[in-house]
């Protein structure tokens, strides 16, 4: 293609709302144009890159038996009510909705489990038609609380969503594993360094899930990794081992009351009782789990030096979300000011869970549910009922990892994909079944698999750029090579560039000829900003020594002057090496 026929739009300045590199560079290089918060025009360059990502996705999914389909974006309320998710998405306000002329309400697909499950139910009669694996690459809508970071978090984006239908759990395990491997290859082929981490399934649900993360400082997710080990988990899900409380195994002492005027926090208690360390205290965190039809107050007991993990807690309560109680609610429900709650004589309205960190603690210090009073030497099970235990604690950097015990380190990541074992969550709720080998109706055992196709492009920019602009990995670059004559008015330069362009195109290279009439400096700046990684620059060297400069920005901006006759062979080699992305050699 010729640059004079390409809608090139470049800017010198960053958009005012750009906080991260990919947003800055993609806006300045004309890949995206903001229409309103979280809504962008995708320019021609971005569309080429997305086309390449989609092609890689299609190839890898068809290798594992995925069949491409298209599901409607408008999905009626009644369908979503059958899975019970209409209210879930209404409560979180994630789903955008619309109505037709008959006043039927539709959700705009944030994801498509309901539609695809309904389709499988209607069209799969027998186990002989299984396994079945369907995918689409289509627009998704989510009314994000805070759209930001350019294409990373938008209201409208392109997702590849796939769904597997199996006869049984063993079948699901095989499908899930095939998708996991396909994802590893997809990201490698895109030239992205991505890794899988244990994840929380969120609103999609199911029994197991793994996120694919691209390591980047601008990532919104925190990931904890066992140093040198193979454990990696989103902090929402991560667990760790901590030293037991020094109180473990102590002989129980009689419970005592102590006046603690205005002493509310763990830090204040440590000052007030210098001999009692935080790991001998039990904090009582008061909150409510918000369900579709009710709110349940919860008291969460956790060791004084630890913190509650809201996602783990939400999963434990089965609620849609967790909200902290307001000071007024605390006074109303416990009869005491905030800072004095505790497990002894806690009003019955509260459901109680104790974090595993509390198990086995003896003679603990905790609130008395009375303003300005704490209790010492409390023993759970003796002074109050023994609570139910669960892991609702936030794992922290430096703690021992759950697998090898090696210390946890933190990395930031961008979530580019997420795979889930759904099991029969949707098929059971929606009554979607097939006739099993014994003739009995059997619910589909399902998995679902997402890739944020548009986010992948942004993540690639986040991972690879230099101070001049984007440096696309070759497999997803809008053009693999740019041939740029610095002075198009110069017949020799223009002629040489035209020749290289024609030969490279004939060799199957996706090449752009920058035939724009403009200053050499400005042309170079544009090409660097737009992210052309392999640049063939036809300049003064041609007349002086018959040479052309070849730059490869993916390998630390290597520059070589080559005789004109050697350029095509050398560039074709470079392109072929780059096309493999990060696939292992061989
Ligand atoms: P996040 O935690 O970032 O909000 P999610 O867990 O809600 O994402 P999934 O439901 O797993 O996302 O969706 C599959 C993929 O779609 C994600 O892995 C991500 O790459 C992409 N994605 C999700 N939300 C957005 C968004 N608002 N803008 C762009 N891409 C998104
Ligand atoms: Mg996710």
What can you tell me about this protein's structure?
Helix 1 (21-28) crosses helix 11, helix 2 packs antiparallel against helix 6 (169-189) and helix 2 packs across helix 11. It contains 15 helices and 31 strands. A hairpin with a 2-residue loop joins strand 1 (32-36) and strand 2 (39-42). The strands form eight sheets. Strands 3, 7, 8, 9, 10, 11, 12, 21 and 24 form a nine-stranded mixed sheet that branches. The longest helix is centred in the first third of the chain and has 21 residues, at 169-189. It folds into three domains: 31-239 and 409-462, Bira Bifunctional Protein, Domain 2 (BirA Bifunctional Protein, domain 2), CATH 3.30.930.10; 256-390, Alpha-Beta Complex (YbaK protein); 472-578, Anticodon-binding domain (Rossmann fold), CATH 3.40.50. Helix content is 27%, strand content 28%. With 586 residues, it is of the alpha+beta class. Adenosine-5'-triphosphate is lined by residues 111, 142, 144, 153-154, 157, 159, 202, 204, 415-418, 450, 452, 454-455. Magnesium ion binds next to strand 21.
Describe the protein's topology.
Layout: H1 21-28, E1 32-36, E2 39-42, H2 44-63, E3 67-68, E4 74-76, H3 77-83, H4 85-92, E5 97-99, E6 105-108, H5 113-123, E7 132-141, E8 156-166, H6 169-189, E9 194-198, E10 208-215, E11 221-226, E12 232-234, E13 256-259, H7 266-272, E14 282-290, E15 295-303, H8 310-317, E16 321-324, H9 327-334, E17 351-355, E18 364-367, E19 373-378, E20 388-390, E21 408-423, H10 425-430, E22 433-435, E23 441-443, E24 445-452, H11 453-463, E25 465-466, E26 469-470, E27 481-485, H12 491-506, E28 511-513, H13 520-530, E29 534-538, H14 540-545, E30 547-552, E31 558-563, H15 567-579
Helix pairs in contact: 1-11, 2-6, 2-11
This protein binds adenosine-5'-triphosphate and magnesium ion.
